[in-house]
Amino acid sequence: MATSLSAPFGTFDVAHPALDVRDDLAGPVAAALTHWDSQEAAQAVLYVDTDPAKADTAVFVEAYDVPLDVSANCVVVAAKRGGDTTLAACLVPAGARVDVNNAVRKHLGARKASFAPMDVAVSESGMEYGGITPIGLPSSWPLLIDAAVVDTPFVLIGSGRRQGKLIAPGWALAQLPGVEVLEGLAI
User: Fold this and answer.
1) Average pLDDT of the chain to the nearest whole number
2) How far apart are CA 172 and CA 154, in angstroms?
3) What is the pLDDT averaged over residues 20-34?
């Protein structure tokens, strides 16, 4: 049986260490938590069960009384240079937008960058649309995280599914494989 904890914010019935409820997570997320080089970081991640119909940020923060400034959104970006396309993930505070046209494009050395089509983001990540999270993304993808997210004590992110969310310390997200922490990723 999973250990029950209190979430650091929000009105969730209960929180569990994410490692205790791997069956409730998308496969890539569960595998990443299990095999994370930093077990201290993996053990610090919590899971809260939530209504999938309330997964979108604006609805979610109101339904669960979560401050917008502790929520972050993970978006998949397609960066193109010549005939090559590179997929990357960007994690920014939920109240901001990813600076795709400047910060992402320049950082990835791309001629053009845009949000990846939904079907590509879902099929390539192995996660559900509306639940994509930085934990468990393909290791070949650059993972760009805005510095403000890393500086947040606890951050609400997706769980890989529309049902449920993860709460992770900002410092733990900076320990993910392939992460690059950038100032000015969010606008």
Assistant:
1) 95
2) 9
3) 96
Let me know if 80 is exposed, middle or buried by CB neighbors in 10 A (0-12, 13-18, 19+): middle
- Residue 6, sorted as left (phi over 0), alpha (psi -120 to 50) or beta, turns out to be beta
Report the DSSP beta bridge partners of residue 79: 86, 113
Alpha-carbon span 27 to 128, nearest angstrom: 11
Tell me how far the alpha carbon of residue 179 is from its chain's centroid.
Answer: 12
Segment 95-116, tens digit of pLDDT: 999 999 999 999 999 999 999 9
Residue 1 has pLDDT above 70, yes or no: no
Angle subtended at Cα 155 by Cα 100 and Cα 148, rounded to the nearest 5 degrees: 50
Task: List pLDDT tens digits, range 117-149.
Answer: 999 999 999 999 999 999 999 999 999 999 999
Structural contact between residues 63 and 179, judged by C-beta atoms closer than 8 angstroms: no
DSSP tag of 37: S
Phi-psi region of 28 (alpha: psi -120 to 50; beta: other; left: phi over 0): alpha
